[in-house]
Amino acid sequence: MNVIEIKNLTKTYGTSRGISNISFTVEEGEIFGFIGPNGAGKSTTIRTLLSLIYPTSGSATIFGKDTVQFAPEIKKEIGYLPSEVFYYDNMKVKDLLNYSASFYKKDCRKRIKELADIMDLDLTKKIDDLSLGNKKKVGIVQGLLHSPKLIILDEPTSGLDPLMQQKFFELLEEENKKGATILFSSHILTEVQRLCNRVAIIKEGEIVTVEKISTLKENTYKKFKVETKAKLDRNYFDLEGVNKLEVKDNHTSFLFKGNINDVMKKIANIEITNLGIEEPDLEEIFLHYYEKER
């Protein structure tokens, strides 16, 4: 069964770009990634899906119900974390969370305490005294306190330190094991690769592809930056799988897809002063992953 079904969802803002003909489904019990560069239309899609803004055309269902027609009913079963969280500054964290819990007509006190302990959140502090990271933790607890069937997260890790990110991912995996379906929006590919089964990639307001993570990984590039004592010949890294090669003085950079050992053998034969191997950013992956499909 599909928990989310989005069909040709379009939202236009006059002449500004919104989203155009977005279609994808999220299956029950799935952790589904929604990924694209900042400004690609991820938040607009999510806000339209949640009926926080209304679509220009197209439709969406959650739990088989139209998201506009049954919005209040659906929202009781959803946990949502927006990309930016804003609160009443003078409230204490526990008062805010208890206020949030009151909308769900169930006793969430025990769950609030559990989540606050996991996320290392001080419930007695005023919202105004919290750092950006701690405000994000409040948003996470607020989104999960009623044990929702569907969790929708928009750039949830921004502001969290690496240790908290790790705890947060473990928490999501635990919720998923209990049966929650998760839609996870991010611009960081490694986050989505770690958590998700499938991923929809959005660019400039349109879906580029919906792909299994295993397929995406096979097509992922590594970015090499090699600094050498002497300037290299342009053809030195003339290997299958090398793209976007740039040689400037003693610096050579390129994207590589294939067996990393082939590149390392070439590097072992030259005198290097520095070497960097990193994940390319999404824009680079888009450019090279889809050129062949075009």
Secondary structure elements and their pairing?
Layout: E1 2-13, E2 16-27, E3 31-35, H1 42-49, E4 57-62, E5 65-66, H2 71-75, E6 78-81, H3 93-101, H4 109-118, H5 132-144, E7 150-154, H6 162-177, E8 181-186, H7 189-195, E9 198-203, E10 206-212, H8 213-218, E11 222-228, E12 242-248, E13 251-256, H9 260-268, E14 272-278, H10 282-291
Parallel strand pairs: 3-8, 3-9, 6-7, 7-8
Antiparallel strand pairs: 1-2, 1-4, 4-5, 9-10, 11-13, 11-14, 12-13
Which key terms come to mind for this protein?
10 helices, four-stranded antiparallel β-sheet, Rossmann fold, 32% helix, 14 strands, 31% strand, six-stranded mixed β-sheet, 294 residues, 2 domains, alpha/beta
Describe the structure.
With about 290 residues, the chain is α/β, with parallel strands linked by helices. The protein has two domains: about 1-220, Rossmann fold (3-Layer(aba) Sandwich); about 220-280. The chain is built from ten helices and 14 strands. The protein has helices at about 40-50, 70-75, 95-100, 110-120, 130-145, 160-175, 190-195, 215-220, 260-270, 280-290; strands at about 1-15, 15-25, 30-35, 55-60, 65, 80, 150-155, 180-185, 200-205, 205-210, 220-230, 240-250, 250-255, 270-280. The strands form three sheets. It has a six-stranded mixed beta sheet, with helices on both faces. A hairpin with a 2-residue loop joins strand 4 and strand 5. It is globular, with a radius of gyration of 22 Å. The model has no long low-confidence stretch (mean pLDDT about 90).
